[in-house]
């Protein structure tokens, strides 16, 4: 249904950029933008999967070294409890002995973080621009139909000649016309409803349970209010979109919105995307964490004894899902579809990559497990 908007010239320029170009290319063969976003997400995730493999391989090697050194790290922490500098020197010596380059590992993690955030934020920005553009085009189509119907009937019933000077907005704003032709205006407005609803149903972009993907999945009307459209235009950061919305006749917008609202009685969605975003984001972190675990649970306890990031990991498990929910609730359903799809695909790709990484690090993991078993026996003897 999104291609119906090409029947009328767009009142604003379409967004551009790499992501938008790819989206437009996919949409040309799919038509529905919801499925377009899903295929776009698959394409991006698979394109970045080689980098994910490199990152996870490097992370797994680093994790194995840290797990192996965890018992020694715990002992050094006790020994140099009051001398952090001496503790760090001893740890650096252990890292060097194991061939572990902490700076190199940090650089890889930093590059991954920067790239991940860059992709996420640029796609977020692009979909906001697309959402603002598509919503403006939707309204432009419906407004054109509304004005055509109104001016045709009012010209017949009031004898008014509509032109560039006497627009529908100017006619409706005139207090004399409001009083003199009140019944004609009301009749014309009622008669325009069927045409408006037909134009709206042809222009809106549905996807599964969502009535309009350019509006958030929740307790909002499928057609945004004027304030919501203004906010959407502002969030796109495009001055052209902002000026267009600010120039709209709010009386006409209100009339059209009321007509559409009379047929769209339910919410635009049911917060399903927000719930899915929280669940799948949590699961994706859980799956990623599993890839760093040793097979023996008792050895994991020993390996974790000397690490200091357990609290941070638990905090991130809560923070990331919460952030995704906020992004989804404050953005269009289009972006919510991207977030959920991205997380689901990440779970699948992470699982497959973990299999390869585990095969590549099998020898090193066996070495770490054997070492930790010896440490466990030593600890058991001391406790006796």
Terminal Cα span: 74 Å
Give the SSE order as H and E letters.
HHHHHHHHHHHHHHHH
The chain-level structural class is mainly alpha
Q: On the 0-100 scale, what is the average pLDDT?
A: 82
What is the radius of gyration? 30 Å
**The biggest beta sheet, please?**
none
Give the count of helical stretches.
16
Low-confidence parts: 1-7
Annotation, overall tally of beta strands: 0
Q: Supply the number of structural domains.
A: 2
What coarse outline follows from CA principal-axis ratios? elongated
Strand content: under 5%
Helix content: over 70%
Overview of the molecule:
With 384 residues, the protein is mostly helical. The chain is 77% helix and 0% strand. It has 2 domains: 2-16 and 141-205 and 227-263, no CATH class; 18-123 and 272-383, no CATH class. 32% of the residues are buried. Helix 12 (272-290) packs parallel to helix 15 (333-360). The protein starts with 17 loop residues before the first helix and ends with a helix. The chain has helices at residues 18-30, 33-79, 84-97, 102-158, 168-173, 175-180, 182-191, 193-203, 226-235, 239-246, 250-263, 272-290, 297-305, 310-329, 333-360, 362-383.
């Amino acid at each position: 249904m999104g291609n119906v908007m090409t029947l009328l010239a767009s009142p604003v320029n379409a967004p551009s950029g790499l992501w938008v170009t790819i989206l437009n290319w996919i949409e040309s063969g799919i038509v529905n933008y919801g499925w377009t976003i899903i295929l776009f997400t698959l394409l991006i995730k698979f394109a970045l999967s080689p980098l994910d493999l490199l990152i996870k391989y490097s992370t797994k090697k680093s994790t194995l070294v840290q797990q192996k050194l965890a018992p020694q790290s715990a002992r050094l922490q006790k020994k140099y409890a009051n001398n952090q500098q001496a503790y760090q020197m001893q740890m650096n010596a252990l890292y060097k002995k194991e061939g572990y380059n902490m700076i190199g590992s940090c650089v890889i993690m930093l590059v991954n973080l920067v790239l991940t955030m860059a992709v996420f934020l640029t796609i977020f920005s692009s979909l906001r621009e697309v959402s603002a553009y598509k919503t403006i085009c939707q309204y432009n189509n419906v407004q054109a139909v509304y004005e055509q119907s109104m001016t045709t009937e009012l010209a017949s019933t009031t004898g008014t000649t509509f032109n560039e000077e006497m627009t529908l907005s100017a006619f409706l704003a005139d207090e004399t016309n409001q009083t003199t032709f009140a019944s004609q205006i009301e009749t014309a407005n009622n008669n325009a409803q069927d045409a408006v609803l037909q134009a709206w149903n042809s222009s809106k972009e549905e996807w599964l349970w969502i009535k309009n993907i350019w509006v958030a999945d929740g307790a909002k009307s499928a057609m945004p209010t004027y304030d919501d459209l203004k906010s959407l235009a502002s969030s796109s950061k495009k001055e052209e979109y902002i000026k267009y919305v600010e120039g709209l006749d709010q009386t006409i917008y209100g009339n059209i919105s009321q007509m559409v609202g009379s047929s769209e009685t339910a919410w635009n969605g049911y917060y399903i995307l927000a719930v899915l975003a929280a669940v799948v984001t949590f699961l994706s972190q859980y799956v990623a964490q599993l890839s760093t675990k040793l097979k023996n649970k008792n050895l994991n306890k020993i390996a974790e004894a000397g690490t200091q990031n357990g609290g941070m990991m638990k905090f991130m498990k809560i923070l990331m899902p919460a952030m995704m929910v906020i992004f989804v609730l404050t953005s269009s359903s289009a972006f919510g579809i991207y977030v959920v799809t991205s997380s689901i695909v990440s779970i699948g790709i992470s699982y497959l990559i973990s299999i390869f990484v585990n095969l590549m690090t099998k020898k090193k993991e066996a070495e770490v497990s054997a070492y930790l078993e010896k440490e466990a026996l030593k600890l058991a003897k001391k406790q006796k």
